[in-house]
Write a structure and sequence with these properties.
By secondary structure, the chain is α+β, with helices and mostly antiparallel strands. The chain contains eleven helices and seven strands. It has three domains: 73 residues, no CATH class; 103 residues, Butyryl-CoA Dehydrogenase, subunit A, domain 2 (Beta Barrel), CATH 2.40.110; 141 residues, Butyryl-CoA Dehydrogenase, subunit A, domain 3. It is 54% helix and 14% strand. Strands 1, 2, 3, 4, 5, 6 and 7 form a seven-stranded mixed sheet that branches. Strand 4 and strand 5 form a beta hairpin.
Length: 339
Amino acid sequence: MERELTAAATAVDGRADRAIRLAVGVGQWLPQPAAGATWQRWRSLAALAVGDLTAARVVEAHTDAVAILREAADDPEVPPVPLDEIGVEPDSTWGVFAAEGPGVRVDARQVGDNWLLTGTKPWCSLADRLSHALITAHTGEGTRRLFAISLRGATIRATADVWVAKGLVNVPSGPIDLEDCAAVPVGPDGWYLRRPGFAWGGIGVAACWYGGAVGIARTLRNAMSSKPPDQIATMHLGAVDAALTAALAVLGAAAAQIDGGSVTAAEASLLAGRVRAVVASAAEEVIIRAGHALGPAPLALDERHARRIADLSLYLRQHHAERDEAALGRAVLELDEWV
C-alpha cells in the first residue's frame, strides 16, 4: 500500500488539481486517528510525502477535515452538523483554516437560527480551488468556534496573488475575505482546540514532514550509490539514518500510545509537542546534511529534488521552531514527574 501511495503522489508532480483528486480518494478510506489504526494513517501520509509534498500537503488537510467531522459526529457533546445546508456532497473537497494573524480576524454572529461570518482569515490554502472548509471564528472576546462553510459564493473572496513562495508553489495560501458568509457550527465554543483530535492532527502533519525528509534521504543515498563515496559523505548518510530512525520511532510510539488509550486529554498536547519537535529537528537535519553531502548540483539541475527541498523547508515552518520548543519546556515544568 505504501509503495502505491508514493507512486500516486509522485504522479501528482506538484500539480494541485491532481493532488485534490487524490485527496478525495484517500479521504474515503484513510483510518480515523485514535481508532486502532493510527500508525497506518500516519505511515500513509508519510508515504505520500515521500512521493510529492504538494500531494501530501493537500491530502493531509482534506483528510484532517474529514477526521474532524467524523470526530464531531461521534462526540455526544456536539449537535448534528447540517452539512447539507452548505451543499456538502461525497466528493466535496476540504481545507482547514484555523490560523490567526495580526490585525485580522473572522467574527461569527448568530441571526435567528443562522450563523454568518465576516472578516479576514489568513493562510487559507487553495481557497479558490476547494469546495468547502472548516474555519475558526471568534464568537466573543477570547472565544473561538469551528464552522463549516462553502467556498463557492459571492460572500467569499480569495486572494491568491500574494503567494510568492518558491516552495509549495501550487498550493497558494493567501487570505480570504468573508462578508456575511453562511456557516454551520461544528461543536460548541472551544471544542475544536480542546478535543484530543487537535493534537493527533498536528502529529499527522509531522508524519508528512518525515516522509518529505525520507524523499530527500533517498536522493542522497542514490547519489552515493552511483560512485564510491568518501568518508564525509558516508558520515552524513549515517547521521541522516539516525535522525530518521529517531523520528520514525517517536511517530510509531505515539501511535501505539494513542490507540492503546493511554493518553489522557491533558497529555495529548504534550505528546504532540514532543513528536513534532523531534520530527521537525530530524527533517531540518536531513535538509542540511543532504546539502553538505551533495553540493549545489542537484539543487541546480534536479528539478524534483530542488522542489522537494523548497517544499519541505516551507512546510516545516508550520512548526514554530524555538517558540514551540519553549511551549514544550513550559509544559514539562508543569509535570509532577519527568523522565
